[in-house]
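User: My collaborator sent over this chain with a note saying "see what the structure looks like." That's all I know about it. Can you take a look?
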Amino acid sequence: MLNNFIGPDEDVNLAVSVNQGNQQSFGKLYDKYAPALFGIISRIVNDKKLAEEILNAAFVNTWNQVATFNASKTSLFTWLISIARQTALDEIKSEQFKNPLYSNPVYEENKKSAFDLVYYKGLNCIEAAAQLNITVEELKADIKMTIKNMKEKEVVC
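Assistant: Without extra context I'll predict from the sequence alone. Here is the result:
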């Protein structure tokens, strides 16, 4: 299992190789990170087929933007998460624009957490608070509590 581990230096080398147009390195990048990114995207869109399409689009975006990766500012995985997340949020916003039903708060489940609305659905604090019918201060307190609870639980990937 340790043979599959790629550390930070290897990630930087992988990104440089992909930036040079190496398709084999791009395949390694995909194999290493696609499962985790798929999980994140699936949580955002909650539709397996759409998540697969967004994952592919996120990797196309990665290929096109790899020259902007800066290892001194972030890890490769964190950078990939931001691309995948933004690709998914762009798709959601596109769907909301096409279908006004999606932008109706009544359409959404009433039990959405503040964290999910802000992080996974891309709403700002004011929009999320309005959807949950709470104040922005209550929303922020809820998000802080969710993050605190996440830190206390062991996360296994």
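A starting point for your reply to your collaborator: Helices lie at 8-19, 23-45, 48-65, 76-98, 114-120, 125-132, 136-152.
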